[in-house]
Amino acid sequence: MRLSFYQRHADKIRIFLFILIMFAITSPIILSYAWLILRSFSVDMNGFIPTKLTIKNWRFLWSEIKGYPNIWKTTFNTAFVAVMVMLLEMIMTSMGGYALSRFDFPGRTSMMKFILVLHAFPSVSLMVAIYYVLKYLNMLDNLWGIILLKAALETPWATWVMKGFYDGIPWEMEWAGLVDGYSRFQVWRKIILPLVKPGVAVTAVFAFLSGWSEFIFINTFIFSQEFWTLSKYVKATIGDFRFADYGLLSAVGVFYALPTIILFFFVSKYMIKLTIGGVKG
Amino acid sequence: MKGKGKAWIFLTPMVVLVVMFFAIPVILTIVLSFTNMDYTFKWNFIGLGNFKDIATDFVIPKVLLNTLIYTFTTLALFNVGCALLISLLTTSMPDRWGSFFRTLWMLPRLTPSVVYGILWLWIFDPTEHGLVNFIRAQMGMPPQDWLHQAPMVIIIVANGFIGASMGMLIFTAAIKAIPTDYYRAALIDGASWWMITRKITLPLIKWQLLFVTAYQTLSLLTSFEYILIITNGGPTFRTEVWALYTYHMAFSNYRFGYGAALSVILVILGTVFALLYLKMFKFEDLMQKPKVEVD
Fold first, then answer.
1. How many domains does chain A divide into?
2. A35 touches chain B (CB under 8 A)
3. Of A59, A86, A102, at which residue does a domain stop?
4. In this structure, how many other beta carbons lie within 10 angstroms of the beta carbon of residue A150?
């Protein structure tokens, strides 16, 4: 029997077609990120072709833009928020997750249910009350307010995820430790914690990324320029330079997004584990 | 396990912080919704006054309509539709290509929101510097001011490109967990790709489809960050959704009591949708079954 060209190569043609469709629907992502990077190094662009290359767009790194705070001070603030949120979340989730996974204490089930209920309250619905709490604690216009707030809002869910990592460690490990005369705390710190390192690392990276990218809380609860983070800086450049200077805008954007894009390649494969872990509850 | 007191040593740091910045605000929001607190921070209880105001607020019908259009269009087209398309296509090609495309789709989710906003402001720039108008110019068409012509389309697309990635991850994992025997049997029977997708893949990932639909409805209902950055609700309330209206009332107009009341309604709205989904999809039956079949 003679097969037509299409029949003989049906599989290959289909795969080729699928790849084409995927390129088509992914094109806005590919094009816009390519544009962002190219634009930050060019004087002007004709479509996607830079007419002339320059580093003038990056001038904000060595000379201050009028009316804007120092970029390095702003970057430091951003890193400070990200690192502190990360540390707080690492400590709280690795301890909380262990307790939820291993201890049978009164109120354990209701606590886990409570975590799920809290997760249903979107942070936007709490912002008014949070504003009041921050004002009461004298933490408005204060980076520590943002740090504690972010850690508090993200910890319940992250603890739930960490609990999943602890659940995967066999009980025998702890018994062995207890028999050898370790206290509960020592068992956790010396035996179990090293075993859930991947979980702690993933929590840490996501906490860092979310602290680094935070925009809404900074935009709402921070007023002084000396406490600006990069998100506020970029938002201000959008307002001031959107029509005047796309070059500067894209350079600031690339500068801000750079650490997240570097970490992105590290975390993208863990993303699935977290979301699915969350689904399985 | 022994040592009930010790559990609390492990939990205290978390509990203190969560109570302070999460549990207390939940209660405070409800209490505040019965006051007309403004920038003077005076507690002045006005009963159901805020809720009466919401019922007569002339912007509310527009905001509610926007919220529903925005939530369900984004959900259908992107968070479920596009996500499903991506996972079906990328699991039917060599995995090298498949993970290449899925990685690209993860990029928007991890990009800081303000930077992501710049990308869409550029794509829909009113001059020929923008992507859409540049393409139009190549075909000899004049540039359009998209932010005024179709602001709702822009925020739906911008949010959709982020929202699609969550469904994509979940569907892909589910499709990959389907035993290959099913596909082999179907291929021997001569089933086409479309037949296999319709008769094997889709029925087997039904739970994930329902879960993503329900979960993403709630996320979209309360999402406003990208709208704030791209259109800020404008022009003239055309993209003002409920969550953003709440934010504007509280932090642009300093009507904290009114903002709190709007928040309470948003949470009630979310709960109603959640309960509807629970009933419609019979989630409780599905909970009992394993969600992803392994082996």
1. 2
2. yes
3. A59
4. 24
Tell me which of B2, B6, B11, B156 to substitute to probe the interface with A (most A C-beta atoms closer than 10 Å): B11
Buried b / exposed e over A16-26, threshold 16 CB at 10 Å, is eebbeebeebb
Q: Which residue has the tokens 């060209």?
A: A5
DSSP annotation string for A36-99: HHHHTTBS-EETTEESSB-SGGGGGGTSPPTTS--HHHHHHHHHHHHHHHHHHHHHHHHHHHHH
A42 and A110: one domain? no
**What amino acid is encoded at A54 in this protein?**
T
Half-sphere exposure of B186 (CA within 13 A, CB side): 16
Considering only residues 64 to 83 of chain A, which have any Cβ-Cβ distance to chain B shorter than 8 Å?
A: none
Structure tokens at A29: 């992502």
**Can you name the residues that pair with B35 across neighbouring β-strands?**
B45
Report CB contact under 8 Å: B93, A18: yes
Amino acid at residue number A246:
Y
> Is the predicted ipTM greater than 0.95, yes or no?
no
- Taking the Cβ of residue A93 and every Cβ of chain B, the question of whether any pair is shorter than 8 Å is answered with yes
Domains and CATH numbers, chain B: 65-258+269-288 (1.10.3720.10)
Tokens of B156: 């739906």
CATH number for the domain that contains residue A70: 1.10.3720.10
Per-residue pLDDT of chain A (281 residues), as tens digits, is: 566 776 777 788 889 999 999 999 999 999 889 888 888 888 877 767 777 777 878 888 888 777 888 889 899 999 999 999 999 999 999 988 888 888 877 777 777 777 767 766 777 778 888 888 888 888 888 899 999 999 988 888 888 888 888 888 888 888 888 888 888 888 888 888 888 888 888 888 888 988 998 999 999 899 888 889 999 988 888 887 777 678 888 888 999 998 888 887 777 666 655 554 443 32
Q: Are residues A139 and A174 in the same domain?
A: yes
Residue B256 has its nearest CB partner, among A45, A121, A128, at: A128
Least CB–CB distance from B122: residue in A88, A128, A246? A246
| DSSP string for A210-236 | HHHH--HHHHHH--SGGG--HHHHHHH
DSSP state, residue B241: -
B24 vs B20: CA distance, rounded Å = 6
Closest C-alpha among B178, B185, B181, B184 to residue B203: B178
Q: Which residues make Cβ contacts (< 8 Å) with residue B201, sequence separation at least 6? A: B88, B175, B178
pTM of the prediction? 0.85
Residue located via tokens 């997004």? A257
- Which residues have C-beta within 8 Å of that of residue A109, sequence separation ≥ 6? none
Q: Determine contact, residues A159/A108, Cβ cutoff 8 Å.
A: no
Instruction: Name all contacts of B199-202 with Cβ < 8 Å and 24+ positions apart.
Output: B201/B88, B201/B175
Determine the structural domain holding residue A70 and report its residue range.
65-280
Helices and strands per DSSP (H, E), number in chain A: 13, 2
Q: How many helices (H) and strands (E) does chain B have?
A: 18, 0
- Contact state of A220 with B251 under an 8 Å Cβ cutoff: yes
Tell whether A180 and A200 lie within a shared domain. Answer: yes
Pair B55, A159: CB distance under 8 Å: no
Do B108 and A29 lie within an 8 Å CB cutoff? yes
